[in-house]
Please model this.
Amino acid sequence: MVKYLISFPSAAMKVPDSEMEAVSHDSHAVVREAKEAGVYVFGGGVDESVTPVLVSADGSVTKGGYTWAPPLNGGFLVLEVPSREEAIAWAARIAKACRCDQELRVFGFDSES
Model:
């Protein structure tokens, strides 16, 4: 079984405010189905109301993330499924629920973490 990361950046969510309740309902329904199917690992979203900080090896803290990198935001879901085809099928269900395309990547699981 392979773990897959299904994600989208916040800018992809071009959904009218009037549809956000339905998006929440529909996406949570897919998550519940993934849990019932035994493929759910974890999921959530980046809290964009909290500014990121960079923490250096010496413990110093600098407000803001990497200036050269695109911002990390949006939502994500990690599933463990037997095939890429099944991962694509789950990503399509999430895309339909969230009303936006989803990025699909193999999640590099580290058994030591």
The beta strands are 2-8, 40-45, 53-55, 61-63, 75-81, 103-106.
